[in-house]
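Readers of this paper often ask what the protein records in our data store actually look like. Such a record has a labelled line for the sequence and another for the backbone structure tokens. Nothing more is needed to write down the fold, since each code stands for a local backbone conformation. The record that follows is passed on verbatim for readers who wish to inspect the format.
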Amino acid sequence: MPEIGESIDKNRPVFIIGGSRTGSEMLKTMLSASSNIDFVDELFLYCPRWLHKDLATNISEHVGDLNSKDALDRLLEFLYSGVPYGWFWSVVERELDRVALREELSKGALDHKFILTSIMAVHARMRGKSGIGAKFPMHYSLTDQLLTWFPECRLIHTTRNPKDVYASQAAKYATSKQNWASRNYSRFKQFVHINLQTTWTAKLHERLRTKPNYRLVRYEDIVLAPEETTRSLCEFLEIPFTMQMLEPNQYGSSFGNKKDRRGIETNAVGRWRQRISGAAASFMDITHRAAFRTLGYGKFSE
């Protein structure tokens, strides 16, 4: 396996960024079939305050000054405590070797960048890979911080038709177990969330679109032209394409249990037509006309 600090390139991580329900997990699974690049799952290092309590805030509250005596011991105890938010931190004992992480963190001054880099490096070494990366290490509205820390990183920005995103989010959070009022309140919250997400996504793309280390990837292109889209991404990442990338595990759908199924489900494109009201669709079309144009969603929004 690669030795940390020798064959692992810590300066050029690959980051998958983007909003909720944009196919990021599927894409991460597809690219993880590469023998070159490893991806850590969502770490929630930085998030808007209204969304989740992020890792940085929790570290500040539970660990304190990272430059103080015994900070490394307190940090490790906290990271493996089950307190940090997110799936990754609920299974961290399996995902991240504690002894290896301690050894890596002891090599430098503790700060948020070094903690993120160390986690990615140890995760990659455990899987015998030399390329590091992460899916959503922090909220995508804070992508500028990633570029400040890692100017040579590669950014893959996942997007999806906002109407399909809203249909997926509403199905996930507004369930039949809720009463009428709770269910409709949940749908309203997701509607507001996805409309904000659409605006942020378009603005982020406008800012980054000319950077050579940035690539926008639409969910629809992955689903409808998987081999062409994946080959193009592999060229961008400078890794070999393998057919195994086109057979990802299916799980995490808002519309049913996909466990133990493989491949790419094509009927998820345009599902909004049966799932959201005409009024909601029209509102999004009118409000986000410029964003749809920026992100290339004309033909998928009809």
Summary: The chain has a mean pLDDT of 91. The two ends are 49 Å apart (CA to CA). The chain has 15 helices and six strands.
